[in-house]
Amino acid sequence: MNPAVFAHALILRALSPAELLAFRSSAQLYQLEEDFGFRSSLGDIVAPAGFLTDFASVPALTKAYLDDDSPAILFGSVIHDWLYTRGGVLEKLTLTRLQADAILREAMLACGARAAQAAVVYWAVRLGGATHWGA
Q1: Helix axes 115-128, 71-85, angle to 10 degrees
Q2: Which residue in 20, 78, 90, 109 has its CB near the most CB atoms, within 10 A?
Q3: In angstroms, how far apart are the furthest CA atoms of the chain?
Q4: Which of 109, 103, 42, 115 is nearest to 78 (CA)?
Q5: Residue 45 forms beta bridges with which residues?
Q6: In this predicted structure, what is the pLDDT of residue 11?
Q7: For residue 77, how many other CB atoms are within 10 A of its CB?
Q8: 46 forms bridges with which residues in the sheet?
Q9: CB-based contact 45:93 (threshold 8 Å)
Q10: pLDDT tens, 16-34?
Q11: How far apart are the first and last CA of the chain?
C-alpha cells in the first residue's frame, strides 16, 4: 500500500469581493486553478480545477488548538471539501462520510499534523459535519 501523499501542487486563486457577492458567500472562497490530488489509503482522490473551497471551517473551540490557516490542515481540507460536496460519490470511488472524515485525518498526518491535532479535527467534523454532507 502506498503511503498517503498529495499528488499535485495546490494552485488556486482567491475570489474577488464581487465574485463572493455573486455566490452570496460570507466566507472567502478559493478556486482551484489546477487539479489537486491526494493518494489516500482508500484510493486516489482528485478535486478538479474550478472547484471552490473555503478550506477548513474550524469551530472556535478547535481554533484554540489548531489554526485553520495551518499547513497541517489546509491541503486536507480541500480534499475533504471536495468529498463533502460530492457526498462521497466520485468517478471511480464512493466513500461514506465516515471514510471522508478519516481521509481528512490521514491527509493532516501526511502534512505533519500531530496525531492529537488530527484526532481533534476528526472528531470535530464527525460531530458537526453532517449538515454539510452532500451540500
Answers
A1: 30
A2: 78
A3: 45
A4: 103
A5: 38
A6: 95
A7: 22
A8: 37
A9: yes
A10: 999 999 989 888 999 999 9
A11: 31
CA 57 to chain centre: 9
Query: Reduced to 3 states, what is the DSSP secondary structure of residue 47?
Result: strand
Quick one: cell of 122?
A: 476528526
Name the grid cell of 73: 490542515
Residue 70 has pLDDT above 90, yes or no: no
Identify residue 25 by its one-letter amino acid code.
S
Asked if residue 35 lies in contact with residue 12, where contact means CB atoms within 8 angstroms, the answer is no
pLDDT band of residue 71 (cuts 50, 70, 90) is: confident
If phi over 0 gives left and psi between -120 and 50 gives alpha, with beta otherwise, what is residue 32? beta
Mean pLDDT, the chain, integer: 88
Q: Which three cell numbers stand for residue 116?
A: 492529537
